[in-house]
Amino acid sequence: MKYKLHPVIIIGFVMAFFVIGAVVSSCKKTKDTPAPQPPTDSTTLASKSKDSALLDARDFYLWYNQIPSGFNAQSYKDPGEIMTALRSYSNEPGFGIVDKWSFGVLKTDWNQLSGGIGTVSNLTTSGDFGMSVFFRVEGDLRVKLVEKASPAGLAGIKRGWRITKINGNTNIKTSNSDFIVNAVFYSASSTFTFVKPDGTSVDITLNAATYPQQTVYLDSVYNIGAKNIGYMVMNSFLGDTSQINTDLQKVMGNFATRNVSDIVIDLRYNGGGYVSLQQKLADYLAPSSTNNQLMMKETFNDKHQNYNTTLYFTKTGPLNPNHVFFIVSQSTASASELLINNLKPYMTVKLIGPGNTDGKPVGFFPLSAGDWYVFPVSFRSTNSANSGSYFNGFTPDAIVADGLDKNWGDTSESCLAKAIKYITTGSFTAQGLEIYKQDPVIISVNKTLDQSSFKGMIDVRGMKQ
């Protein structure tokens, strides 16, 4: 079968329909013996979907040559389980097994998620409350983000609110995380008791629904002394790319009009998305000297070297900031890390957050497997300095707690406050060495609370021909 991958990034969502052709046997027709029809029962279709998923992986997986010859696709429930199993065959020299990301999803679910109609908590179309949570410390569960158009957003719930009771249960501790996950992310309806920043409590019942997702959560300009500081919270590089490009143009245009000298981009929960959108944001943030300079390269396995791609900066707008700060966390992944890596050779970028980023310098694109799309890791990315093996993530320049007790844009929130301190004083600390160490239990449980959110670097470039 012949495939064509275009050498440019398509801005917009175009699914890559790689269809495994069916082999149809022919027989001589007679009047009394009609030609047999190929079976179409659900069992046969499911079987073909699993075979197709494995064939795609053997062709495009970055570590395809590590997949055992005896790997049996039919022993797994569906293409999603196959992708999860294949992660074990991703030994990277110097790092060991690295793949945490290859996945499969029903086409109906992916079409909603990728277009910005979906949920914050899972790859299904059943909906959720539009609210994610993290533990600040033991026993202190906070709302970390709320989708504006979701049930939680429409109910007026804000980041930073504390949850003290769920469905009548006051055991809001890390040891009860399974209950919390099910109640917050996988329930059709749940009742929460929230404590607001002013100390008042409110009980709110939420019913799950789907909703349009918001990519740019907040943008502000702070005038502090002689500094005009631009701040933007970008929660994802997924969604309606046309709308997101319009939003970015508006935000960056406002920054330019307000003579912003320093920029803080909040990516702390941004799990990635389209390569084309990080490219657009990089073009706004990069200095004018980068125009037409190498931004990044994508490299496929040795079967598909002809698909390798080189991208260049196209400087957009007049912004030329003195500093660019990225607020990050363990949830910062893939296309978000790609943005940071692509800017590093050309300007000084500072990272602020509680710990290392996810560490995903690889990407994928959708491959069709029946009524599923599978996403085996298919390419690695490097910047203009040929740097790209950040499987351990990026370490922040300032290790600072995630200010889960504050809403977006609050200048007293620990991470934003740290960026403002550097911009106004020239250093992160006034004197001595500040040390922040995360509780390992909190880290582990918050990873569980975060595991269902999307993490990916998607290059939508493939089309069947």
Automatic annotation (TrEMBL):
**A Pfam cross-reference name:** Peptidase_S41
Molecular function terms from GO: endopeptidase activity; serine-type peptidase activity
Q: Membrane-crossing residues? A: 7-24
SUPFAM superfamilies attached to this UniProt entry: ClpP/crotonase, PDZ domain-like
The record's section on CDD domains has:
Peptidase_S41_CPP_like
The reply to whether Membrane figures as a keyword in the UniProt entry is yes
The biological process GO terms on file are: proteolysis; signal transduction
Q: Which UniProt keywords apply?
A: Membrane, Transmembrane, Transmembrane helix
Signal peptide location in the record?
A: none
Name of the protein described by the UniProt record = Tail specific protease domain-containing protein
